[in-house]
Amino acid sequence: MEAAEGIELLIRAARPTNAYEETMQRLLQSIRLGMIGPGERLPAERDLATMLKVSRDTVREALATLADAGYVVSRRGRYGGTFVAERIPEDSALGRGSATLPSAAEIEDVTTLRRVLEVGAAREAAGRELSAEERAALAHALEECSSSEAVDHRRLDSRLHLLIAELSGSTSLVPLVANLRTRVNALLEAIPMLQPNIVHSNDQHEAIVSAILAGRPQSAAEAMLEHVEGSSALLRGFLTRH
């Protein structure tokens, strides 16, 4: 059975974020809100790519991630394609009971704080003349996060973000970002930690750190904004119902 025509949710104006995360958000929302019901076939990859204005590789990667998470299944043959799973993962499978799923307002509040604090921290860090020790510490934190096992990733991710806040030169900013990271991690703990998401996060971290080390404040801010919006897109897709 083909997906229903009402798939316009997939093609609403995208936020300025990574194409992969935005694609994940649109597909997850469409599945979880029932716009593409259990057992229904998704449009072909080329059609999804056109609808979402992304590459077929991006669509393929997002669908592979959703298959790993149990939301879709692939079938071969004449009547094959990608189908929504007959039973999509329950809210409890994401680590939260349905009564405690965060609201869209909660996710947006955290995202707004991140835009103000973390994007600003990256811009300020890139605008400072960093010492050799500070540059080495930043490069080391990036390497540790990028090469970490999944079990350590969130901790080392937070350490990198806190170091960027420290390198902004504002001692008052560090505890604010520390409190914010606690809220961010509480949300991230409620969604699956999937390898493609980690890879994208690491790529974004590298762009942020490279811009800081090169002394490019605007590029650092833009890279951090893409990172923040990418995380937010995944949270919206996995956790919010409306």
From TrEMBL:
Membrane-spanning segments: none
Coiled coil segments of this chain: none
Record keywords, A-Z: DNA-binding, Transcription, Transcription regulation
KW Methyltransferase (keyword) present: no
Boundaries of every HTH gntR-type domain copy: 17-87
Ribosomal protein in keyword set: no
Annotated protein name in UniProt: FadR family transcriptional regulator
